Amino acid sequence: MELWWAFLLLGAAVGFFAGLLGVGGGGIMVPVLTSLFLSLGFAESVHMALATSLAAIVVTSFASARSHHAHQAVLWPVVWRMSPGIIVGTLLAALIAAFLPTKALAWFFSLFMAYVAVQMLWNIKPKPSRSLPGTLPLAATGFGIGAISALVAIGGGSLTVPFLTWCNVKVQQAIGTSAALGLPIAISGTLGYAISGALVAPVEMMPAWSLGYVYLPAVLLISVVSFFTAPLGVKLAHRLPVATLKKLFALLLISLSAKMLHHVAF
After folding, report:
1. Would the keyword Acyltransferase be found if you checked this record's keyword annotation (predicted)?
2. Is-above-0.85 flag for pTM?
3. Domain range holding 127?
4. N or C: which end of the chain has fewer CB within 10 A?
5. Is 166 in contact with 126 (CB distance < 8 Å)?
6. Please, which residues have CB within 8 angstroms of residue 210's CB and are 6 or more apart in sequence?
């Protein structure tokens, strides 16, 4: 734990940006954790980064969902109908990820973050064109969102919010509902990576205090700090030029993803 200070700084940044821009921390955490784990000599650094990131998102997802619920911005019937698909998709993808090559995961993560960055840079939003589908289509959509979220360690907001907006859900309710759906994504993904890591990764190759692919000390340090910096980001969201900050954040995502590819995929 000689890099404890780095995990604390990462938690501060993750919480701040989550509160300020309403984004999950996976885009920041995965590349940074990959670099930190490589410097510590951990095997399966990308798998551990994805798992640890999802575990750290559990706390912030809960806090965010509770806050949106207090503002009556969560469509709970939609949450209940999408959650079964999300849980199955996230859990299954996290289990399968253990068998995927590190380079493949790194490329998939980086390409998806490029997609997220393009969304932010050009403020791309789908035009509302339909109503919410029935239970089965919602569950199927949840399955896809959960599976992708597990492979890139995000709370699903970059997929869930555009989908709900496309279905004529108000933006505030789309964000609040997405925040509530981030909790089953984070919990299921953490469980899946914990199980797959325990089954696949050799025990002697994993660091102490690991639960499968989840590195518990990093989860604790990141979560504790992010819990306190997220409210600061929320307060500043009404004072700072968020549109400009989103573009800068998008460029940060691209640079961090490129750095991770340089470390792992080449």
Report:
1. no
2. yes
3. 4-264
4. C
5. yes
6. 48, 197, 216
